[in-house]
Structure formats: structure tokens, C-alpha cells
What does this fold into?
Amino acid sequence: MTAKRSKSAPRSRPVPVSRPPGPVGLPLGRSGKVHPPYGFGLWALGRWTKEDEARTRSSLLRALEKGVPWLDTAEVYGSGRSERMLGDALSDRPAGAFVPFLTTKVSWEHLRAAQVRASIQQSLHRLARPSVDVYLVHAPDPHVPIGETMGAMELLWKSGKVGAIGVSNFTVPQLEAAQAALPEAEIVVNQVRFNLLDREEGEAIAPYCRKHGIVIEAYTPLARGLLAGRYLDREKPSAELKRYAHSILDEDHFAELRDRARSLRELAREAGVPLPSIALHWLSRQGVAPLFGASQGAQVDELLEAWAVRPSDAVLDRADAIVREGRA
Ligand SMILES: NC(=O)c1ccc[n+]([C@@H]2O[C@H](COP(=O)([O-])OP(=O)(O)OC[C@H]3O[C@@H](n4cnc5c(N)ncnc54)[C@H](OP(=O)(O)O)[C@@H]3O)[C@@H](O)[C@H]2O)c1
It folds into this structure.
């Protein structure tokens, strides 16, 4: 018996994307610089056991070896261990080796002006770099006036320690307040949770970010592995993973989202593309830069192979419809 194809399954051929750098990148505000189209993040679930650290190091080394154009970290990841690991890995490279675009973040607990100044010093020390490309406020703190934080960020930008200023997990009113508090600098990036299955935060800020030329960096682009094909059959997400996966893996949502992810997997099979190609290029087609995670070098390889295949627009439209309408 031949497998039944859904009525409008698009069969157009995937378009190969040259790599690196794939799609050229996104304008970084008015700076004339370019933000890479995708990157790899060094978060490791926030638990940072020795095993996590070893896995993250091997993924990082693979990402560097393969020329991933952007690496993201934060002072809170492993309480500085993520930044130190990245700094060590970059320092161990031969002189003249390619240095990826680097982003790091000041913790939401360090948003007083003196704390911002101390945090960047410590981050640059751990990273063993004189500057980072973009320095992000990791999340707003309602107890600290945004003007104080942004005033300190602007001074760092003027001093050259940070190439540009970004934010993360900011809503539109928070973005407006942050931009209004910067006399000269501009906000070039907002990093938010955004994937095919969990798009509320991304879609809420997208029109404002597009209008003001702010790059949307999408974290959790693979829905913590669901859009890489995990948890669709026998494997169950661990309790710890659920803790860190927002609502995607909550009991109330999981069965429904898994059904949609299974339909996406079917679509990917019919279209002859890897499932993560659909997840990553659904974001990229909207001008959003996906920031994926990986706990093994082999996952990095698979994701880069997936990135190198751009599904046709018809396939991406179908993927969008499957999730939006919940139909297979
Ligand atoms: N600004 C913020 O508040 C914020 C918040 C969260 C994340 N981030 C950033 O975004 C980055 C990515 O976030 P994320 O880790 O949630 O993203 P994700 O890309 O949605 O999930 C990554 C996880 O998916 C699984 N995976 C990846 N490739 C796979 C493959 N080929 N096969 C099977 N499973 C695969 C791995 O799970 P296992 O580890 O279980 O193997 C991996 O750790 C972070 O590292 C961090 O830099 C920022």
C-alpha cells in the first residue's frame, strides 16, 4: 500500500543554501554592520553539571570548527562558566582564525548602572576579548528604572566595549521605554522565545521590530528538540527539561503540540527536507535570526545540514498552516 499523501502536500524541490554564510544576514540597525542569519547558544539548560559542561564544550568546538557565524552566551549561564568556556575556546584558536559574531547579556539582577559597568568588565575578562558585538539586557527588572540601565549601556557603547546595544524578553512598551532612554545609541536586537509551535512573544514584537529595524533573535527555535524530531515517538521529555521549556512541554499543551510536530515531520518527509530545516527557515524567511542549542557535536552537524537546505515557500506556508490551524 502506498502512503496516502495529504491533498496539497507541496513537492517543489528544496533550494540548497550555500554555507557559510547562507542568507547573507540582517542589517544591524544603522551601523552598516550585518547580524549573522543564525547562531548557536551556550546555555545548557541552566543546570551546568560537569556532564553538561563537557557536552556544551564539544558542541561549541564543533560549531567553531564548522564556522557557525554567531555565538550567544550570558553572564548567568553557568554563573559565568559559559562565557569562560567560550573565551578559552576562542583563545585556543590559531592567530587569524575566524572569530564569530559574539553576543552576551547582563543579568536582570544587575541592572543598576554600577552593576552594568561591573558586569561587562567581568564578562569581557571571562571572554578574553576587548569587546562584544552586541551586549543585551537579559530581561527587564521592574524595580530598576530603565533610564538608569540604558544610560550605562550607552556609555559602554561610546567607550567601544560593546559594538551595539540589545535587549531580550522585552515587550513593545518596554522596547519603547528603553529606546526613549537612549539619547544617541539605538537598540539593534530583541532576543525572544520564538518557534513554529510557540510564537506568541515573537509575533507580538515583530511589527514594532520590523518598523524600527530591530533584529529579532529567536531563542528555542527547535522547541527544545520537538522540532528536531524529539519526543514524537517513545522518548518522553524529562521533568527537568519541562521545567526549562516554558509551556511547550506542559501536560495541557504537549499532546496537541506533539500532534502538530508529527504533522510537520510528515510534511518534511513528503517534501524531502529535514524537519529542523522547516523550523529554522520558517523563522529565517520572516527576517528572524534563529539561535539554536545543541548538547552534542552530532546535533550541531545535523542542524547545520538542516540549515543548508531551504524548503520551498510552499512547504513553509504549509508548515505555518499546519500549526496555525491545527490541521494535518
Ligand atoms: N534570552 C533568553 O532569555 C534565552 C532563553 C533561552 C535560551 N536562550 C538562548 O537560545 C539558545 C538556544 O535555546 P534552546 O536550547 O532552548 O533552543 P532549541 O534549539 O529550541 O533547543 C535545543 C535542544 O534541542 C535538542 N536538539 C538540538 N538539535 C537536535 C538534533 N539534531 N536532534 C535531536 N535533538 C536536538 C537538544 O536537546 P538536548 O540538550 O536535550 O539534547 C538541544 O539542547 C540558548 O543556548 C541561549 O543561548 C536565550
User: Anything to note?
Assistant: Residues 41-43, 72, 138, 168-169, 191, 219-225, 228, 230, 291-295, 299, 302-303 surround NAP (CB under 6 Å). The radius of gyration is 20 Å. The CA atoms of residues 225 and 231 lie 8 Å apart. The longest strand covers residues 187-193.
